Amino acid sequence: MRGPAGILLCWLLLVAPHCTEVAAQDDEPDPKMPCAKWMGGAPGYPGHNGLPGRDGKDGKDGLKGEKGDAGAAGPIGAPGAVGPPGIPGRPGASGSMGMKGEKGDAAFVHRSAFSVGLTERPPAPNVPIRFSKIFYNEQGHYDASTGKFICNVPGTYYFTYHLTVYLADVKVSLYKKGKAVIFTYDQFQNNNVDQASGSVLLHLSSGDEVWLQVYGNGNNNGIYADNVNDSTFIGFLLYPDMGDY
């Protein structure tokens, strides 16, 4: 259907539902007014709980609360392992000087030494040679009247002799406690002055005697000394026996 009649029909069809809805709304009672035009139905049953909603966003932090009281002290824990040494601290200040101590005993140094020369010539054979020229005998351990050194400090000693040889051969020995320890022989050459010498280390006990002596038969006592030639006998303590002191 076309033309004005068709347009009118279409307009009526669109307006009719709206008018019906308005009329229906006019028939509903005002919920604020007493029931005058209709009667309400019985209340329905409560519906089922709905599904939990989603978690909301975290809220902002609140204000800081007041500090609470301290709790009770807990039990003492086990000792920990020893840590590494720390850095050395600075040196402390010097302390005050202490009181002076008591005077100690002075250290005692054991000494025993002699150095002697010959004045008699020629010496008699088979008896101790008496060296009566004293160079050093501070401790008095050498006896010039007998020609013997007497040990007063037990220990190790060094002995040596240097003899001028003239006019005859020399056979000499160093004795300890009456027994020859070393021997020296020098053959004299005519119109010449010779030298004979010897040395030895000996351990001596207190009272031991040491001396030089011409030995053997015959003319073997060519030991000589004068204003320009010396024959000497020397001995001294190297170190004492510490167990005896």
TrEMBL record:
The encoding gene: Adipoq
Record keyword Magnesium present: no
Low complexity bias locations: 70-81
Keyword annotations: Collagen, Hydroxylation, Secreted, Signal
Protein name in the entry: ADIPO protein
Protein species of origin: Tachuris rubrigastra
Pfam families registered for this protein in UniProt: C1q, Collagen
Cross-referenced PROSITE patterns: C1Q (PS50871)
SMART domains: C1Q
One Gene Ontology cellular component annotation held by this UniProt entry: collagen trimer
Signal sequence, start to end: 1-24
Domain C1q: 107-244
Start-end of Basic and acidic residues biased regions: 54-69
Span list, region Disordered: 25-102
Subcellular location: Secreted
